[in-house]
Amino acid sequence: MRFEPKVLMRHSEWKQIARACLAEFFGTGLLILFALLMHNKDIYCHIANLSLNIWFTGPVSGGHINPWVTLLFTLQGKVPFVTCVLYILSQILGATTGSAFAIFVLANVYNDERMNSRYHEVGMLRVRPASDIGGTRTDSVYVIYFILEMLAATFFYLTVLSVSDHRRHELRSWDGSCTFLGAFLIGFSLIPGWAICAELTADCVNPIRALGPAIANFQLGKLFVSVFMRNLYLSDLSFF
């Protein structure tokens, strides 16, 4: 995974930056679209989804497709601040577009009864954990959710740091991007978090997994009130 793309670090031509941002847009959009549509599928489907998106966007943009990954490497000085902002904007737009398309597919493929069930399943109408938005659980449960999501996120980001280490020659190709093995290892790191958190927090890890559907459903207000201020669902922030 090329977290310090030469094309962005050494040149500032807008066409090159735009190309990288488009890669982040499409990579994130496809990641969220497939993640939502196959929400209740086997974990290995999600591993393949993440690994392939990282792999094919890596040579162009570094294959971040996650705002916290971009922020992490910006804090390390590997990604310029302006590039960080453009990447995150592209990722949010991609996640919103992917979520909107998933809503369109669900609304036009399934009948009304199955649509309503499936719609809630993938967290479209309510930010996961869906059953907790109404406030039926105690604050101590939300603290547990926060800790579990923090552990899953920490394991995931430590794997990203390890794979992107310049000393891992077997995981990096000649142009600095990660090999398919490196992308697969990042995807494979979802398994521990999934095993622990899937039924409780949906193992978010990537914050735009919640942000994209919230924007697409015009529920951004609920996201901030229920998630940031109360449920602390985007606990990936705690990694920093």
From TrEMBL:
<dbReference type="InterPro" id="IPR000425">
    <property type="entry name" value="MIP"/>
</dbReference>
<dbReference type="GO" id="GO:0016020">
    <property type="term" value="C:membrane"/>
</dbReference>
<keyword id="KW-0812">Transmembrane</keyword>
<feature type="transmembrane region" description="Helical">
    <location>
        <begin position="142"/>
        <end position="164"/>
    </location>
</feature>
<dbReference type="InterPro" id="IPR034294">
    <property type="entry name" value="Aquaporin_transptr"/>
</dbReference>
<keyword id="KW-1133">Transmembrane helix</keyword>
<feature type="transmembrane region" description="Helical">
    <location>
        <begin position="85"/>
        <end position="110"/>
    </location>
</feature>
<dbReference type="InterPro" id="IPR023271">
    <property type="entry name" value="Aquaporin-like"/>
</dbReference>
<feature type="transmembrane region" description="Helical">
    <location>
        <begin position="21"/>
        <end position="40"/>
    </location>
</feature>
<feature type="transmembrane region" description="Helical">
    <location>
        <begin position="52"/>
        <end position="73"/>
    </location>
</feature>
<comment type="similarity">
    <text>Belongs to the MIP/aquaporin (TC 1.A.8) family.</text>
</comment>
<keyword id="KW-0472">Membrane</keyword>
<protein>
    <recommendedName>
        <fullName>Aquaporin</fullName>
    </recommendedName>
</protein>
<feature type="transmembrane region" description="Helical">
    <location>
        <begin position="176"/>
        <end position="196"/>
    </location>
</feature>
<dbReference type="Pfam" id="PF00230">
    <property type="entry name" value="MIP"/>
</dbReference>
<keyword id="KW-0813">Transport</keyword>
